[in-house]
Design a protein that fits this description.
The chain has helices spanning 5-10, 96-101, 103-116, 130-136, 203-213, 215-223, 270-287, 333-358, 372-385, 390-398, 407-412, 419-427, 433-452, 454-458, 462-470, 477-484, 489-501, 512-522, and strands at 38-44, 47-52, 57-61, 93-95, 118-122, 150-152, 168-171, 183-191, 198-202, 226-232, 235-241, 244-246, 252-255, 294-296, 303-307, 311-315, 324-331. The chain is an alpha+beta fold. It folds into three domains: 5-66, 2-Layer Sandwich (NE0471 N-terminal domain-like), CATH 3.30.2020.30; 76-339, Double-stranded beta-helix; 362-522, Hypothetical protein af1432. A six-stranded mixed sheet has the order 4-5-15-8-17-6. Strands 7-16-9-14 form a four-stranded antiparallel sheet. A three-stranded antiparallel sheet has the order 1-2-3, with no helix packed on it.
């Protein structure tokens, strides 16, 4: 295959080019020489190896080339565009307590906001300020001139029509702000009024229909800057952006639509103004089509989370004397997307570990009478039985993860596979140093104990004695002193002792699922 040399070199994964922990690049693009070229290339064992004209060598997993392009998920391409009938069987929703307790439920709710633009949490405590707790469950509150939170109820001297009882047409909140808050939350505290039902319209769907039915009007709304403004005694906000925002490839990325906040377009020729208003009216009419309008009623305890730069939200008029009180706040999509990605990644690592224990873990463990999985599970169980803190139970359970992938066989052939470092480096993408450093040092701990406790070496199994010699043998007095002074050395020695005892073929061994909740807590999956 033909590959761009600068693209390929810019993505070199080696430790000289990228920090192993963060994955961040250690060089500037200008550090690469002019005329960079591939001088040699070879493919073997699932990897492409490249020798460059400046002498650098890169090695790429062939599966890396097959990975799909990852966008930020913000354009129409990463969304599920919808009409009201798509939710005839119910809204995307979850119970607040289940959302907090179950990471899979949080993934489902946040995923619905990302894909469909909204979700409803039921049973959020009916108390002032609880909407902030919902926002903070996945991100950060965006404070505005309305404060950290705002009350949506009839106000005697309202500075915004939202704080009256009149009907509000489908719209974007805060279009006059740059950047506009990309998420809005509305938590219902009271809703006894006649009327006051909530509504949503998929603005991306409306924009896509406009593009399909009138490409010229769509183009006008993507290129005409529209002045949005809001002012009161203490605020003067302005932003000038198109009603429909698209990315460099022309994909719909943002809709800002708010009839109440559009200012006066100036500086355009009459023909341009005529074209804009024709397109604007056509788009507005599409947003009001009944089939696009999803209507529902919020009850006390319901909290609606929605994408404010995609969905247009609305409200029917209500009787002023009736009690209707919502509290709202703003947040941002990037933090929700980040939380969702981390949750999915952490759930995936648990599934990956479970697969390793059930798959490769069933194989031989370096000449011992137990399998690799039995050995690791026994180590975790011994730590747990001794009342160890959770991070040391996890370290004991996972200490030999670096052997997976066949590297354990390399060790038995007489080559140090440095499995302690390989395992710790991989796990450090997900777990903190309190878990990974005892794993990184557990081989060194064996060498240390052999140096400082003569009786310890005598108790090693035949296989462990063999690997000790491959791994460098007992430490010298200087090495032992240096090791003992390292942070985490004491924990590594403790893990090592459980490691040495976990080789009993007759012992009752728990399954990986027994430890899954503990690992989940260490991964932050307990909310």
């Amino acid at each position: 295959m033909s590959l761009s040399p600068y693209w390929l070199r810019d993505n070199c994964p080696c430790a000289e080019c990228r920090d192993p922990r963060t994955g961040q690049k250690l060089f500037q693009i200008t550090d690469l020489p002019d005329g960079l070229a591939v001088t040699e290339r070879s493919e073997a064992e699932g990897h492409l190896t490249v020798l460059w004209s400046d002498g650098h060598r890169s090695r790429y997993a062939t599966e890396w080339f097959e990975q799909a392009a990852e966008g930020d998920g913000r354009t129409e391409e990463g969304k599920r565009l919808w009409v009201a009938a798509d939710f005839a069987r119910g809204l995307p929703e979850a119970d607040w307590s289940a959302y907090l307790a179950d990471p899979a439920e949080r993934v489902a709710v946040l995923g619905a906001v990302r894909r469909s633009g909204f979700a409803v949490l039921r049973g959020v405590p009916v108390a002032e300020g609880e909407v902030l707790a919902v926002a903070r469950s996945f991100g950060y509150v965006r404070e505005t001139n309305y404060g950290e939170l705002f009350d949506v109820r009839v106000e005697p001297q309202a500075n915004n029509l939202a704080f009256t009882n009149v009907a509000i047409a489908p719209h974007t909140d805060n279009p006059y702000r740059d950047p506009v808050p990309t998420l809005q939350l509305l938590h219902c505290l009271r809703n006894e009024a006649e009327g006051g039902d909530s509504g949503l319209v998929d603005g991306f769907k409306a924009a896509a229909l406009l593009r399909e039915e009138s490409p010229e009007d769509f183009a006008v709304l993507t290129r005409t800057p529209v002045p949005f403004a809001f002012r009161d005694r203490g605020t003067d906000l302005r932003a000038e952006v198109p009603l429909i925002g698209v990315d460099a490839l022309g994909r719909i990325r943002e809709v800002r639509f708010n009839n109440r906040s559009i200012g006066t377009l100036r500086g355009l020729a009459t023909a341009e103004l005529d074209a804009f208003y024709a397109a604007y009216r056509r788009f507005a009419a599409i947003t009001l089509r009944p089939e696009l309008q999803l209507e529902f009623r919020l009850s006390p305890g319901d909290c609606l989370i929605f994408d404010n730069v995609r969905l247009l939200h609305a409200r029917t008029a209500f009787e002023q004397q009736g009690g209707r009180h919502l509290q709202g706040c703003y947040a941002d999509l990037d933090t929700l997307a980040s939380t969702l990605a981390v949750l999915e990644r952490r759930l995936a690592v648990l599934d990956t570990l479970a697969g390793l224990f059930e798959g490769e873990g069933a194989g031989e463990y370096l000449g011992e009478d137990v399998t690799m999985a039995q050995h690791m599970l026994q180590a975790g169980a011994l730590a747990e039985a001794d009342g160890a803190p959770e991070h040391l139970v996890a370290a004991s359970l996972l200490h030999d993860v670096g052997h997976f992938g066949g590297s354990g066989l390399e060790l038995m052939r007489g080559n140090d596979n440095r499995h302690s470092h390989t395992g710790a480096d991989w796990l450090s993408r997900h777990f903190g140093p309190e878990v990974t450093e005892p794993i990184r040092l557990h081989v060194a701990a064996k060498r240390y104990l052999c140096a400082v406790e003569p009786a310890y070496r005598a108790g090693l199994s035949e296989a462990s004695e063999y690997t000790l010699r491959v791994q460098g043998g007992p430490m010298s007095p200087a090495e032992a002193a240096e090791f003992a002074a390292r942070p985490g050395a004491a924990d590594a020695v403790t893990v090592r002792r459980w490691d040495d005892r976990a080789k009993d073929s007759a012992a009752r061994t728990p399954s990986f699922e027994h430890f899954r909740p503990l690992l989940g807590r260490l991964l932050g999956l307990d909310g």
